[in-house]
Structure formats: structure tokens, C-alpha cells
Model the fold of this input.
Amino acid sequence: MTKKTKRPLPAGNGAEDPFRDRNLLRTILETIPDKLYFKDAESRFVRNSRAHVKSFGVDDPADLVGKTDFDFFSDEHARQAFEDEQRIIRTGEPLIGIEEKETWPDGRVTWASSTKMPLKDEKGEVVGTFGISRDITRQKEIELEAKNLTAALKRSNQELEEFASVASHDLQEPLRMISGYLNLIVRRYQDRLDQDGREFIAFAVDGAQRMQVMIDDLLSYSRVTTLGKTFSLIETEAVLQRALLNLKVAVDEAGARVIHGAMPAVMGDARQIERLFQNLIGNGLKYRRPGDVPEIQISADKKDSDWVFSIRDNGIGIDPKYFDRIFGIFQRLHTREQYSGTGIGLAVCKKTVERHGGRIWVESEEGKGATFCFTIPAGLDPAKRPAP
Ligand code: ADP
Done:
């Protein structure tokens, strides 16, 4: 039920009632920052808001009366607007919230969000059109910049992807040749070489082997996206168990204690999530002080629309200034003599998590263990998952 409120009475001092139609229309036309216009059946301006008049660089509203869009805009835009309005007059159908690209004779382009309606006389006959347009040029520019940026980012990601994949493929062949001939030298000429010669060849073989490992690493990095499987519903409990089975030797050797809480079902690539757990738990086992017994806790907590998985260890920890760096390709904080590895593991983890629409980060203090966390969106509806 609506309560009727009485409109305040006119001042009674002879001043015009400010709520009369005439004053309301005048106020709108004089002050509203949007472009308001009334046009006759030939699309000639009849009345315009002050903002509309100004947008044409005209001072006096009277100077606009009788003119058309053809007097101001480029032919292309004026014709489009004319055709739209003539159709509204013919059909009586309005155009609501359309985006108009306004092109000007000097080459300028502006954008407007417009609504155009049929203008009827008292008998209901369509006698023209009226409309309201809001300038959305800045908004459109921002939209376009964002679109261009996303496209450029996609392109550069794709290029990087191709580079890693092509480089690692193409490096395989010459490397195979180097390794093959080194082995041949060892087999055939070992006896004829002196101590130095044998040592030099051993260094060369070692270098070739390391390069092979790095190429394999690069390939596995690029394969996260190129060979990734489409997502399906996976039980992370089962996936975690498989990862732990793969790590059984390392766990047993270190006498490690690995515990975990309840694990959820998520949409994902089971092989990749298995590898993700394996990498993170494997690091937890590896980066410990000599003689320490690793303790690793794995948990999954629902936070908003994500599952947050965390893998906590009691190892050497990481100085916060390296938190970003360690996720880069081949980035390591230790020499091979201290801890084995090539520095690809966390880069693969990051790429895997991002492919699943999540984030990965680490929380740690040097010497106080590290907790690696990653998120996977909790929605199980495949249609709402990020495109793999
Ligand atoms: P890799 O283990 O082959 O070096 P990663 O990409 O897995 O490669 O790790 C990069 C670096 O991050 C490691 O060299 C190590 O310095 C650091 N790091 C990773 N995991 C841990 C951890 N659980 N505790 C301490 N440091 C870690």
C-alpha cells in the first residue's frame, strides 16, 4: 500500500510552481550531463539538452534546431543513426541500451550508450523519435586496453610455450650425438688416454647428462599445457595415496612421518595433481637438515569458493625474500652438492595450479620449516571450470 505524500504547495508569492512539467523539463534539459534529444520524423533536431548542444561545439540550443546528425558526424555514423530512427518510426519499436560508435569528420571516435524511443503525439501517432545518450568513451577505451593486453599476454604465453617445447625438442638431437660420440671415445680410446684425458671426458659426459635432464625438465614444463588432460572429477585422497606410493622409498629412507586430514573431490587432471603432491611432498622430504626426521602434514580446507591445500614440513625453511624466485624455471637456492635437483619442480607446480584456475604460494621462515599452499576452485560443475 502506498502512502500518499502531499506535494509542497507553491510559495504563494507569485513564483511558478517548481514541480510543474515546464520547470521539470527545463531543469532536465539544462542540467543533465547526458545527451537528450527530440527529433522530428525526418530526424531533424527539435529540442536538445544543453550537454547535447555542447557536444557538437554549438553554444545556442536554437542553432541546433532543424539540423541533423549529417551536419556534425561523419556520413557513416549519421547514416546509421538515421536508419535506426527511421526504423523506430516505421515499427514503433525502441532501441534500448545500444552501444553507438560515433565517428566524426576529423577522424575522432567516441562511444555512447543510447536508448532511442518513438515520439508519439496525443493521438498516439508516431511523429518522431527521442533519445538519451551517455558518453562511454573512456569506459570503452579501458575495455579495449584490457582486451588488447589480454590478447598480448595470451600471445606471449603461447610463444613462450612454443619456444620451450621447440627448444627442448630440437636440443635433443644434437645432444644425443654429443653423448653418443663421447661414449664411443670412452669405449674405444679409454686405454690410450692419460689420467687428464679420462677426467676431461668424464666432465663432458657429466655435462651432457645434466643437459639431458634439463631438456627433459623443460619438456615436462611445456607439457603441463600441451599434453594436459581434460578435467574430470577426482578424489584427491586417492591421488595423494598414489603420490605417496611413488615417494615410498624416500619416505622410508628418511623415516619420515607423513600425516593428512580429510581430502576433497575436485575437478582436475588426476595425473597432474598427483605430480603436484609428489613434488611438494618430495621437497618437504628433501630440504631438511642432515639427521633430522621429516614430518609432513597435508591438509585441505574450504575457503570461500576454493579448496586450500597445504603441505607443511619441518625442514630448513626459506628466507621470505626468495618466495617469488623459487617458482621460476631452473631457480634454486642451493648447489647440486647440497641438495640434488634442477629447479623445475616448483615451476611445474605453479603452471599446474594455474591451469586448474588456482594460486600457489609459500609461507616460511628460514630454519623453521615451510608450508606450501595451493588452491583449486571448489565448484564441481565442469561447465564452470576454467578452460584447460
Ligand atoms: P629443485 O628441488 O629441483 O631445486 P624446485 O623448483 O622444487 O626445484 O625448488 C626450487 C628451490 O626452492 C629449491 O632449490 C629450494 O631451495 C627451495 N625449496 C623448495 N621446496 C622447499 C622446502 N620444502 N623447504 C625449503 N626450501 C625449498
In short: Residues 229-388 form a domain with the Heat Shock Protein 90 fold (CATH 3.30.565.10). The chain has three domains: 21-135, 136-227, 229-388.
